[in-house]
Amino acid sequence: MARIAGVNLPDRKCVEFALRSIYGIGPAKSKSICQVLAIPSSRRVFELTEDEVLKIREIIDRDYQVEGDLRRMVSMNVKRLMDLGCYRGLRHRKGLPVNGQRTHTNARTRKGKARAIPGKKKVTK
Predict the structure, then answer these.
(1) Which pLDDT score, from 0 to 100, does residue 41 have?
(2) Number of domains into which the chain is organized
(3) Which residues contact 54 (CB under 8 A, 6 or more apart)?
(4) Where residue 76 sits, what CATH number does that domain have?
(5) So what's the pLDDT on residue 117?
(6) CA dist., res. 36 & res. 60, Å (int)
(7) 121: in domain
(8) Phi, psi (degrees; rounded to nearest 5) at 9
(9) Alpha-carbon distance 3 to 56, whole Å?
């Protein structure tokens, strides 16, 4: 089992897809890591040698900001916006969509479960 950046990579997945389980590494970064190390896309994680795992770990530590550091940086950026009191910070504080999405309908992921308004009844015709 390969452990990189504090994450256990799934053994049966291809290396390119398994690297995506690390927070901060997506399709483009995982593909570039595999190309730099000349790892074929069909290679599985359990087929990697210790040397290859060590090289992957070194590249990620050296070139990319991942997992805890990245999560901390993102949360600090959100906290900074909230402290400034700018529009985006206020939207974060209220738990509403930040990037201009509509809220009249939808936005349930961000707003949470719909709550009934007392005294308001549906009018049927």
Answers:
(1) 80
(2) 2
(3) none
(4) 4.10.910.10
(5) 83
(6) 12
(7) no
(8) -80, 140
(9) 10
